[in-house]
TrEMBL record:
Residues 36-100 form the RNA polymerase sigma-70 region domain. GO terms for biological process: DNA-templated transcription initiation. One of its GO terms (molecular function) is sigma factor activity. Keywords: Sigma factor, Transcription, Transcription regulation. This is ECF family sigma factor. Belongs to the sigma-70 factor family. ECF subfamily. It comes from the Bacteria.
Amino acid sequence: MDMRVPFFAEFAEEAGYVSAEAGAGLDAAGLRCHLEAHYRTLHRRLAHDLGCTDRASDSLHDAWLKLGDMAPTLRVRNADAYVYRVARNLALDQLRTERRIVSWEDLEDEAALPDPQPGPAQTAEARSVLARLERALVDLPYRHQCVLFDVRVAERTRAEVAETYGLSTRNVDTLVRQALDHCAARLRGTCADGESLRAA
């Protein structure tokens, strides 16, 4: 934003400018004094709009410097609005610049991140584990399957499951433990396919 460039007369009022001949308004030094005197209010507004107190502080500092570059013939009638606009525009310009910059370090860091997608070997291993687990569940007695499903998948209480199948809660615990032990043994390979708890 180049504040040395004069505005057309029809936009002067909207922009907050008046000419030196008008005899009203603040020059650069006056605007800097206004910024210092109203720093807290301006900072609070900017922090709210920008969502960051540090960025608000930086933009007000940059605005104070920028005001020193203002053409000496210009005067500003609405100092508060003008100073706020300068600070906000500088902050937005900085944000746009930061979004365009991508350093080599950023690219290298991103390239070094592990790929979250599983590779072919991991996919094959996962499918193998699921297949073994499915076979282990099929080999469970029907009552073990039902109780395990109700407790671990449907998340019913032990008392509800016991009432449904005419069991004690202790029996429910036993069936769940037996079913889980069987599945774990199948996954560890210490229990052969087809070997079930039907004899248990």
